[in-house]
Amino acid sequence: MIVDSLVRRKTDIDLGVKSLSPIANIFERLQSWEQTGGSPIGFVQLDIATEYERLRDLLAKERPDSIVHCAEQRAAPYSMKNSTTKRYTVHNNINGTHNLLCAIVETGLDIHVVHFGTMGVYGYGGLQRGSIPEGYLEVEIPDGDNGTSRKQILYPADPGSVYHMTKSLDQLLFYFYNKNDRVRVTDLHQGIVWGTNTVQTKRHPKLINRFDYDGDYGTVLNRFLMQSAIGYPLTVHGTGGQTRAFIHITDSVRCVQLALENPPNNQEKVNIFNQMTEVHKIRDLATKVAALTGAEISYLPNPRNEAAENELQVENQHLLNLGLKPTTLSEGLMTELVDVAKRFAYRCDPTRVPCTSAWLDKGRGGEEEVMSATSMIPLGALTAEL
């Protein structure tokens, strides 16, 4: 059963932009799924952040074994546009997660929650010593007798946007309800998703996934491949030295399946898995796409408040041990995505490609931040936006 407020579709209207791939309405999608031989899927339109009683009663009626929780505003740039989007992101994400946990406790049901988190909770500092562990860190704490005691704590959060901050707060909510009420949770700290189709969505044209290309919701590799398909320079912010974790959409779905099939028991702490398969610097990705497609690269000031360069080493052994076989970046998969972008290029509005959300306001360091990012880019590398 799908429970959805359908607010993402309303956001398209508010922003004046739409997915590059045409998205049918929910009822057409469910009907198309059944036409391919898929088992019927129920649908309830419900906002879990505001309709607590309906959510609680639905759980009591359906008594699910598991819930995959992805009912959160998911874009960092959108969360930083203005005070309205910042407040909405916090209201929607935190209330939704907390309402779900409260409803599970109130109904007394033993439900395994699988949550889409983000690698961004760890932050993207310029320096890193060792690999980022999967959620927990072993520390030594001085005690009163000149000795130390060992303790396992959540890896210190270092969110880089309001969106990432809500995911960090999710961690604490899961920690508390797991400790206090033994709610079973698997938190998937996911990297940047790229790709458009899975085996299931390829069954019917109306099942295609979203292909967001705009500056608010488009993820970096999808944006690069779309930009190359329409002859738009690849937009690299700052030096392009930011290192990010990535995962193909087929692997993302597979990780959810593995989490559902391997739930923690009621006495175990929250499972935290780093859901990623590889890391790349942004400028290296741009170079790969440019070599494949002949696209130009445009270096632009970075709107984010982040280190110009960072390294990233990430542990992801849990999902590998459960059977994940990573789908890594390949020319064939990138070509497939370019073909999708070319097919729907007529739906693209080039004016929506630039990222206009700025992390810092002028007067609070914003102007200086843009200048510092610009000063690190060779002047000859700057090209004009379309």
Provide the descriptors you would attach to this structure in a database record.
single chain; Rossmann fold; four-stranded parallel β-sheet; three-stranded mixed β-sheet; alpha/beta; disordered C terminus; 13 strands; 386 residues
Chain-wise SSE layout:
Elements: E1 2-4, H1 7-15, H2 26-35, E2 43-45, H3 52-62, E3 66-69, H4 76-79, H5 83-107, E4 112-118, E5 136-142, E6 148-154, H6 162-181, E7 184-190, E8 192-194, H7 220-229, E9 234-237, E10 243-248, H8 249-261, E11 271-275, E12 278-281, H9 282-293, E13 297-300, H10 317-322, H11 331-343, H12 366-375
Parallel strand pairs: 1-2, 3-4, 4-7, 7-11, 8-10, 9-13
Antiparallel strand pairs: 5-6, 10-12
Helix pairs in contact: 3-5, 5-6, 7-9, 7-11
Per CATH, the class reads: Alpha Beta
CATH architecture: 3-Layer(aba) Sandwich
Give the helices and strands as they follow along the chain.
Answer: EHHEHEHHEEEHEEHEEHEEHEHHH
Total beta-strand segments: 13
Q: Which structural class best describes the helix and strand composition?
A: alpha/beta
Describe the global form. globular
Which whole number gives the mean pLDDT?
90
Number of helices: 12
CATH fold-type name = Rossmann fold
State the end-to-end distance: 43 Å
Instruction: List low-confidence stretches.
Output: 367-386
From the alpha carbons, calculate the radius of gyration and give it in angstroms. 21 Å
Kindly report the spatial arrangement of strands forming the biggest sheet: 3-4-7-11
Report the β-strand fraction as a percent range.
Answer: 15-25%
- Major sheet description: 4 strands, parallel
Please name the fourth-level CATH homologous superfamily. Answer: NAD(P)-binding Rossmann-like Domain
Tally of separate domains: 1
Helix content: 25-40%
